[in-house]
Automatic annotation (TrEMBL), chains A, B, C, D:
This is TIGR00725 family protein. GO terms for cellular component: cytosol. InterPro entries: CHP00725 (IPR005268), LDcluster4 (IPR041164), LOG_family_nucleotidases (IPR052341). It holds the Pfam family LDcluster4. Coiled coil: none annotated. It comes from the Bacteria.
Length: 162, 162, 162, 162
């Protein structure tokens, strides 16, 4: 936990204005607390979160499905083209401390299921798929506070072990 | 479609007697119609299906999460250790013509979500996760008939294109 | 070792007549001794080996870089499209008991390097890249005998441990 | 090319003092010119390069083979545990604009071979494996100048196309 693993931000390319607004606010708030964000690097929720994080001076990494970064969103700090297609979803879930889903369909569902299988906390907002074990939130502020609380507790547990 | 892509058989290691019986029958029936089976290579539903397919002289391939085949089930025709951990779920969904789920939890859910994202038909039995787009069946025979029908139609469509 | 892990057969799509002839003979000989073959599923050396193995009634599995099996060679027993692009090279090295290279360039070199890193024996023929740790052979018969010898010894070591 | 793809820095965990010194200087120089660095996240050359980049205020991302970041080097800006084992080598090569190798054995060789297959420039220093297509350098400064030159040219070509 000492090392800078990112928070995973997942959600659809096709998003509602409300989801996009939440993603911008969420990216801004996460970056403001010093968290690094990992996402799929594409448009919609991913782009909005990267935009928000960039405004707060944060770091956003995009794991792209393609072989190159030509279709990455322009707000990523670092674009990592994996050439893995949608299989890169598994890497997003694997490499994140926890996952935050805003809306989303089958892609988001696959990431949530993999994250929960790896015992990662999954926080959701605004119509993300319902999966047993994921925690549903109504607004960005409560969700960010909950993620921050979890991170602090996890860090303390880690430190106590060392 | 001319080439021998397999049918994906997914389901949990911890299964009920009813699910195991269905998996054995399903493996036997699929192998009997000449279909090759791809699965995760472990115990439970995967082992029961491999057992059934072996009795019918069929081919079953296991994509294992581990680095070696020491923990593969003993009924696989070919064991392929991927060293990818649970990320190998994505490969099972990617490499299969269609997916058949018997029961299952988060792992099965992730495979179904990925398969549906790749437009693969998903057939389910006996308590598999409910996902929009997956077809729910009550018994093995009806499911096998439906899979066989789909394959015949898919092959004809493919042949007509060529 | 009890479980049916395959022998990996690697080599280029663009091959000389001599390499293709060796691949056909090698596929036939390996299949004749009951070994399952794993390859990249494409043309050239991979197709020639699959052709030879098929004539001997053997099983050949192709891990394809593409999302579907449309460009697989027609002699595969099972075609597994991975959607991973060239990254599937790592899976071929990871999932094989040992690797046999016929000719080859950068792709074959990457598979040899990964296989050797995982302590897999690597046998080469007819102009495969020279890598320290890989064993160079002059003809198919001596190579097949050497692979068979290694497999027998490896099985005995495994059995003695159990 | 507009988007921030990283430069890949590859090399062994067991390194000579000369290689470690070069890696520190290289990390510092690359970060000083504003380049983001992608590496394997472990010790030796990877840790030295991350240390140097951190001193220059740069960003270093580590794609770890493990499931968590417990064994990451402490100088990474972001640690991404992939759970892929050595197969993550392919991702390092795939996601980088170009590769720079300092020393190295089979792991570095596999990354160089994959990078060259994907037409990525490969620059090497201090005993990296010799592979046709990779450019060999004698000192850090000349190498950094050459990488910077290549990046500028690549960006101009990209811009001209747009």
């Amino acid at each position: 936990m000492r090392h800078a693993m990112p928070v995973g931000l997942i959600g659809p390319r096709e998003a509602t204005p409300e989801q996009l607004q939440a993603a911008r606010n969420l990216g801004y708030a996460l970056a403001g607390t010093g968290m690094t964000i990992l996402c799929g690097g594409k448009g919609g929720v991913m782009e909005a979160a990267a935009f928000g994080a960039k405004r707060a001076g944060g770091i956003v990494i995009g794991l792209l499905p393609e072989d190159d970064a030509n279709e990455a969103n322009p707000f990523l700090t670092v674009a990592l083209p994996t050439g893995l297609g949608i299989t890169r979803n598994a890497l997003i879930a694997r490499a994140s401390l926890c996952l935050i889903a805003i809306g989303g369909g089958l892609g988001t569902l696959s990431e949530m299921a993999l994250g929960l299988q790896w015992n990662k906390p999954v926080f959701t907002l605004l119509g993300a798929p319902l999966v047993r074990g994921a925690e549903v939130f109504d607004d960005v502020d409560t969700l960010v506070a909950s993620v921050a609380n979890w991170l602090v507790t996890a860090r303390q547990t880690q430190t106590a072990k060392e």
